[in-house]
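Work package 3, deliverable 3.1, input record:
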Amino acid sequence: MARQDNAIDVRNAVKRYGSFTALKEVSLSIKDNEFFTLLGPSGCGKTTLLRMIAGFEDVSHGSIHLYGQEIENLPPNQRPVNTVFQSYALFPHLNVLDNVAFGVEMKGASQSEARSKARQMLELVQLSDFSARKPSQLSGGQQQRVALARALAPQPKVLLLDEPLSALDLKLRKAMQLELKHLQRETGITFIFVTHDQEEALTMSDRIAVMSAGELQQLGTPREIYESPRNVFVADFIGETNLLTVVVKEIRDGNAICQLDGGHELHCNEVAGIGVGSSVHLSLRPERVFISDKPRESKSLQGKVSENIFIGTDITTIVNLTDGPTFTVRTSNSDRGSKGIFEPGSDVYVNMEPGAARLLID
Amino acid sequence: MADVSARLDVRTYTGFRAITLLCLCILYAPLLVVTIYSFNSSNSIAAWEGFSLRWYVDVFTGPESAKFKLAAWNSFVIAIVAASVSTAIATLAATGMIRAGKFRLRMLSAGLISLPLMVPEIVTAVATLIFFNAIGFDRGLMTIVLAHIAFCIPFAYLPIAARMQGIDDSFEQAALDLYATRRQAFTRILLPLMAPGIISGFLLAFIVSLDDFIITNFVKGAGVETLPTAIFGAVKQGIKPNIMAISTLLLSVSVVMVTISYFVSKTDKTN
């Protein structure tokens, strides 16, 4: 049942366009005052879901509740949610102040009330000096902030953001990520953010829903998603990882012993649903393994360095396991003294902390 | 680089200047002659005797002035009514065609709206006349107005539709998202954004109605004259210099309209 204290409850939401199903039975709950991100590649259904919450797409099947109230049949202008559009959609014929005041006035406030509210919002996004300008006279970053102020001004219960940072350059995007996070804390409004940029999602979100092919793949905190991906898609989509094919040989005391090609053995935590004998994938983050010239313990994997790649903060080392798969190892540049860098051709051992490797459901 | 682009410039082609001058001559020489001779003090339309405004005075006070004034008034009223009504219909048509999403027969509808532009005017004129006769509609000022509304619609539609096509859906969605009703979204957001297209459409329809001759001549009732039919009637009895003065006045109206239309579309770009 929909709970009063959840900002949004999506129940078995389906969206069909003719014979194409954009969203397949998605259910998720977004908590009050949460920075929630819908993350996935283009075409995964994240924007469709956002537009269904906003009211621009109707729901083929299922329901959407907002603080306990069923909203999927309400028109967009009767839903207490506002959207920051990807294109910003600032009204070109109105100045910045009237753009921001628009929603407040449409909600029933007088023009002077709406304008004074708009002035407050422009102060919040530090654009007070620009209120008389037309949107076309602003930079991309300024337009973005006006769009944000306009959507926040009517004090929505939930703010929807449809890839709002995608048109900005990298530096500005980073700055806006922090600003958005601060705004969310200051206003206490629930934010639902759509993006295809996993780094952006990890930086800003309280929780992330990873979507692919119209389905919810995993829902969790950034840490859970990154460190304990549930399946191959999530492990591969979020961050960089070594995806290895393994056969589970033995399960003992919650520990799964997996065999790689070439007879190498690897220990990791047991995962419900994966039994002895199954051939599955395993994810191992490059920064959670390290290399040494002597075996640390019986679990070390033997191999040969094939290449070192300098990538600024880190060095990526490619190791070919003896008769086995290729491994990517990442060493932070600040650690290279203690951990050591091995020249291509060196014989090395690959080691990892317990629990670093994670079995995945396909 | 500069040399290559200079060589590719169309202005460097052989005969560019000559062809340009020839085209300009064909287009504007007749208008220029009429304009200049409208200021002739002579009774003859061919011999120049000196500058004078007598034919303009003649237009407003001469023996034929009452006839022309009434015709001009008729033309003006018809053009205003026809342009207003056809612009309103064209705006609704464009809203339906471009804002209602995909619907069956959409291509056909778009074709049907603009087809009258391609139909020879004489066919439209004959058909309209037969139609009015068939339904027993007495010919007079009203038949002209109705016929003008009908054939002005595609002219008004084209600039309005072109403008609307350039307006992203997200503006209306943003308005609805910000608690505007559909009506408010239309009047407060869509209509102002469409205004340049609507003004262009209105001006085009106005001009087309103002100078229409063929259809008007077919559907007008006996004794009802518009400026073009009155000019035609006068010319049949021999061209007098006052015709040139009237033509020049009409030309000025067109120039003013086109200029307004140009500046309207120019302010549009600063949006």
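The interface with chain B takes residues 54-56, 75-77, 81-83, 85, 87, 89-93, 102-103, 106-107, 134, 136, 150-151, 154 of chain A (CB under 8 Å).
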